[in-house]
């Protein structure tokens, strides 16, 4: 019987159990587990399990929002014969990025701090061809019954000083688990193809150290961001002319 029970216990847990049991002898039945380290290991193991569970919740929330966007894309493509977004990417923030972000906020790495202080553990980036499609998708998403818009940063209407443009939303949506309904936050970033091209290059400038002439490069990027914005506006005009010629 004993060995049957042990077989179902994961190896690292079994090592802990053996260790604890070997110290809880019949002569001293109420003896405290001697090494505080063992208890720390157990609590760490529990914390890891809750962290993994939380990440699973974020994965579910991210899939929910991604599916909502894909459904909208399918329907709008069917109706308008053109797709409102070109591509969609999603990611769960890595544990080390979560750790760094909490540290920047002066917070410890804990499940509680992650769920109450971070909004971008689950992130989706939607790349559109045209700026007006971004706002159309935004409206369609935000007006859905189970979507709550918690925060919106419109860096398209109000670009950052460096020229960065994108529309950022923090959404809250419910996920339905076996015994509960949980509300989870997901960050959605909308950009045009051209804005995404710009942001990828600018990202390299931000994260590469010791680039010579970085100030001149920043200025060039700022100027290019403006050109890109003009181009994005022209593309809408050209699209409308093409569509108008169909009438
Ligand atoms: P962080 O999430 O810590 O960055 O702070 P925040 O929530 O105040 O930032 P914000 O919502 O403005 O931006 C979040 C994300 O947008 C970043 O993680 C990047 O993916 C993107 N982003 C914001 N600003 C820039 C920028 O200047 N350049 C580039 N390339 N990406 C940016
Ligand atoms: Mg953010």
Distance between the termini: 80 Å
Strands, total number: 5
Strand content: 15-25%
Task: Point out poorly predicted stretches.
Answer: 1-6
CATH class: Alpha Beta
Q: So how many helices?
A: 8
Mean pLDDT: 88
Task: Please outline the major beta sheet.
Answer: 5 strands, mixed
Number of domains: 1
Please identify which CATH superfamily we are dealing with. Beta Polymerase, domain 2
Classify the helix fraction into a percent range.
55-70%
The 3D shape can be described as flat
Give structural notes:
With 247 residues, the protein is α+β, with helices and mostly antiparallel strands. It has one domain (42-245): Beta Polymerase, domain 2, CATH 3.30.460.10. It has eight helices and five strands, in the order H-H-H-E-H-H-E-H-E-E-E-H-H. It has a five-stranded mixed beta sheet with strand order 1-2-5-4-3. Helix 7 (193-207) runs antiparallel to helix 8. It is flat, with a radius of gyration of 25 Å. The model is unreliable at 1-6 (pLDDT under 50). The structure holds guanosine-5'-triphosphate and magnesium ion. Guanosine-5'-triphosphate (GTP) binds next to helix 7. The site of magnesium ion has 2 residues, from loops.
Report a brief summary of the structure.
The protein is of the alpha+beta class. It has eight helices and five strands, in the order αααβααβαβββαα. The protein has helices at 2-7, 11-23, 36-80, 95-104, 111-117, 131-142, 193-207, 214-244; strands spanning 85-92, 122-128, 148-154, 167-176, 181-192.
